[in-house]
Design a protein that fits this description.
Layout (H helix, E strand, L loop, with lengths): L4 E4 L7 H11 L5 E3 L2 H14 L5 H14 L23 H10 L3 E3 L8 H4 L5 E3 L1 H11 L1 H14 L7 H10 L3 H8 L6
Parallel strand pairs: 1-2, 1-3, 3-4
Helix pairs in contact: 1-7, 6-7, 6-9, 8-9
Amino acid sequence: MATFTAIYDASVLYPAPLRDLLLHLALTDLFQARWTQVIHEEWIEALLADRPDLSRERLERTRQLMDASVLDCLVEGYEDLVPGLQLPDPDDRHVLAAAIRVGADVIVTANLKHFPPSSLAAYGIDAQHPDQFVRHLVDLAPGPVCVAVKTHRQSLKTPPKTIAEYLETPQRHSLPETVAALRAFEDLL
């Protein structure tokens, strides 16, 4: 049963390998993963800016699959909180507002400087880099995390990945602590 709530910022939903890992982890029921339509729009726009060869339709399909796969993932009704919030980048206030609305414990973001502890403390919310977040999950419940990682690895069919090849991807995406922790469980991945 989910013991805490995590808001996924757009910065962890693109690149795709990180998003896919975080979505597989969301299915473990160790925590409740949440996001908003605005967060979706941010990662989709960033991806389209970097990859004009991709179609919006394809990314909208990804959005729909994400929303369908994680129960109760979409946060709504947070917009009234946005104007009263202070963050270094005002464009990130919607993420904090969504976190406050659902009583989230953590915002998972690659942009920690956008969510300083001094701005989050009053709400009891922590910002964590995805490496720290996943590493904490490994420490909390290595069995379910290993099952999620194995399921993710086995879903990669073009081409299939060995465990060593699979672990190269999170290493490239700034998850060295996660990779180090997972290496202790290679037989389960």
